[in-house]
Amino acid sequence: MAFPITRLRRLRRTAELRNMVCETRLTPDAFVYPMFVCPGEGFRKEVKSMPGVFNLSVDEAVREAREVHMLGVPSVILFGLPDKKDEIATGAWAEDGIVQQATRAIKREVPGLVVMGDVCLCEYMSHGHCGIVKAASPRSLGAAATHAMNKVRTVAVRSQKEKKQTIEKLAAVVADRGPADYEIVNDASLELLAKTSVSLANAGIDIIAPSDMMDGRVAAIRRGLDDAGFINTPILSYAAKFASGFYGPFREAADSAPQFGDRRSYQMDGANLREAMREIEADIEEGADMIMVKPAMPYLDVIAAARERFDLPLAAYQVSGEYAMIEAAARNGWIERDRVMMESLLSIRRAGASMILTYYAKDAAKLLG
Ligand SMILES: [Zn+2]
Fold this sequence. Notes:
Layout: H1 15-20, E1 31-38, E2 44-47, E3 50-57, H2 58-70, E4 75-80, H3 90-93, H4 98-109, E5 114-119, E6 132-135, H5 141-151, H6 160-175, E7 182-185, H7 186-203, E8 207-210, H8 217-227, E9 236-241, H9 248-253, H10 273-286, E10 290-294, H11 300-309, E11 314-318, H12 320-331, H13 337-351, E12 355-358, H14 361-368
Parallel strand pairs: 1-3, 1-4, 1-12, 4-5, 5-8, 9-10, 10-11, 11-12
Antiparallel strand pairs: 2-3, 6-7
This protein binds zinc ion.
Residues 120, 122, 130, 211-212 line the site of zinc ion.
């Protein structure tokens, strides 16, 4: 049947009719709220590039968790800002690590809330990478300096000021020896990731969510958890995590920017949908209970393809940059914030995500409530 028999506008005539034929519904129980916990007491610091999102001390995180729970959002995911970083990510797996502390407090005060633990090393590593870093070639600091000298040609200096500037320039080049000189060691990093997962499970984390993108980490974590007796702790793997410019604001929030190079040797190339399916398949084979695609809106096709192909619960992470863009445009009066917020979440849901990790969890729940 075609027009004039068919008139699609008939079912759009009133709000009631539109509601009856609505295909995709958002509910607060689809949301997971990310939180950034840091040392201190009574501490709340807004993340500049993410208005409305805060670094929270444990007591403040508990308050926030209570509010999230009251709004009908079933879960939070915790990221940690340790007071000290090192080369073995001690803060990630220490018994008194910041996420471990926050988990104990939240599980005690808000027992009904499902607490997820993001498992990665970047926030706890002095170099900010998601795994152990090793110099890939025997190129020494001296060789790097020579390389730097070749790059900086002005060596003749006339004044103290110029001399200082030249030294600073050289130091900068030496410090940034570039990703080619480094390797993020895969297999050795797995041990730390498993150790971190067990430590989080010990603290009471309900769901382990590895985001590092090392090969084989789901299997390593599963083994670690099982050996420690946590056979019932599920794994939500960030299975298809793309190297994305949309993570920018998060790196401020979690203070986790890499000090050199980038993450392209472990996070995925945004061009690759088929590879994303292989990543997901590998994680499922290794024992993932749930899978995730990250970021969400620039990768809706990946979410849809994953939904089509796999039967596991599927999550998508609406990342910091997606949030920051909406906030910035809304603050300029260029878009209607609430409307765009809900539309962005709806699009992720429609693409097939059953769970959405989003900084909008609270605000969207309020609108839906
Ligand atoms: Zn990381």
